[in-house]
Amino acid sequence: MKKVISNPWNVSERDFPATGTLEEQLRFLLNYAILAPSKHNTQPWLFKVYQDTIELYTDQSRVLSMVDAEGREMIMSCGAALANLRVALRYFGFSWLMEVPSKPGEEQMLARLIIEKGVEPTEEERKLFFAIPQRRTNRRAFSNRPVPAGLLSRLEEVAGNAGTSLSVIEDEEQRADLANLILAADRRLWTSQQFRHEMAEWVHSNESNSPDGIPEYALGKADTTSYLGPLILRSLIDHTDKQPQTRTTPTLAVLSTVADTWFDWLSAGLALENMLLLARLKGVWASFFSQPTEVPAMRQTLRTLLGRTDFPQIVLRLGYATRVQPTPRRTVDDVVR
Predict the structure, then answer these.
(1) pLDDT band at residue 236 using 50, 70 and 90 as cut-offs
(2) How far apart are the first and last CA of the chain?
(3) CB under 8 Å to 246, separation ≥6 — which residues?
(4) Cα(36)–Cα(83) distance, rounded to whole angstroms?
(5) Is residue 51 exposed (0-12), middle (13-18) or buried (19+ Cβ within 10 Å)?
(6) Most-buried pick from 60, 205, 218, 239 (CB within 10 A)?
(7) Alpha-carbon distance 182 to 233, whole Å?
(8) Burial letters 66-80, b for 16+ CB under 10 A, else e
């Protein structure tokens, strides 16, 4: 008999149904997949589990029609869930053959994994598995402690392994231009009544029992709460102390893909979550500035700013901060077709 986990954040490897059927085991591992990040915590993924197979679909009822009409960020979120699933599979000694359709089609299937027993996980794969329930989107102000250059190099390597690229913005003039672009895109979005209504649908009070969306306690002073004002938004991008020599900034980086197809968006989501898990292993938090990629003209400006011909998918903010509570999650029963 399967055990229902009412809060996936409380999932434990000790609950793995070792004596259950393969289908029961795969269904259990979805508890880790659904801890992935998603825009406004919409959790836009669906799964089918049968015999030795897991299929990943988009949940079209959860598309954000204003900021993500094409489903780009939705597919990235599904890619992040797929990354978590693959890490969990490796931890429990599984391997897989992944099939990807030529296009998602009417059912919006993104990937099919055919599962079989594999070799034991490496030490790093084990550590990444335990980072899954520790990952959060941290929208608080980051401390002055810089992210080590060695870790940033590792993150760039992880992005490259997934067929994407990570550009760390180190030049001060380029950082200033990026900060201004984020602010300009944010202002543009907030002038739209449709955007404001869409945001209101997904932000909930702390008393809400909704299993999705963003509770007030998770908002902090970050990208999704820029309605608090441009000065607060800028403070998250660029901290400046009274003494110029003590000026410190969080790390800003842009994740990009060579093309801009649905498969590139899926790859970007895979890369993103793999980077976020590695960052958490090293005590580093992340949040996102998606605004410049949600306004088409400003997305093109971001490409020009980077001096690249590939396509920016999201801006990351990396650094050290105090721990935050997780946002709610739907159960596995809610996301299995």
Answers:
(1) low
(2) 19
(3) 144
(4) 8
(5) exposed
(6) 218
(7) 9
(8) bbbeebbbbbbbbbb
**106-162 pLDDT tens trace:** 889 999 999 999 999 999 999 999 999 999 999 888 998 999 999 999 999 999 999
In angstroms and rounded to an integer, the radius of gyration of the C-alpha atoms of the chain is 19
pTM value > 0.90: yes
d(CA 43, CA 329): 8
- Which residues on neighbouring strands pair with residue 111, listed in sequence order? 56
CA distances to 40, 179, 262, 282 from 97, rounded to whole Å, are 31, 42, 20, 30
Give dist(CA 44, CA 77) in Å, integer. 7
Helix (H) or strand (E) holding 54: strand 53-58
pLDDT digits (tens, 9 = 90+) for 260-307: 999 999 999 999 999 999 999 999 999 999 999 999 999 999 999 999
Q: Residue 290 in contact with residue 74, Cβ under 8 Å?
A: no
Contact 92, 25 (CB under 8 A): yes
Cβ distance 33 to 81 under 8 Å? yes
Query: How far apart, in whole angstroms, are the C-alpha atoms of residue 210 and residue 143?
Result: 31
**For tokens 């998606």, what's the residue?**
290
Q: Which residues pair with 283 in a beta bridge?
A: none
Which pLDDT belongs to residue 234? 59
Query: Closest Cα partner for 306 from 258, 253, 247?
Result: 253
**Residue 332, CB half-sphere, CA atoms under 13 Å: how many?**
21
Q: How far apart are CA 188 and CA 99, in angstroms?
A: 39
Nearest Cα neighbor of 77 from 30, 26, 48, 42 is 42
- Give residue 88's Cα distance to chain centre: 17
φ, ψ of residue 112 to 5 degrees: the values are -125, 130
What's 60's DSSP letter? G
The 10 Å Cβ neighbour count of residue 312 is 24
Q: What's the distance, CA 26 to chain centroid?
A: 22
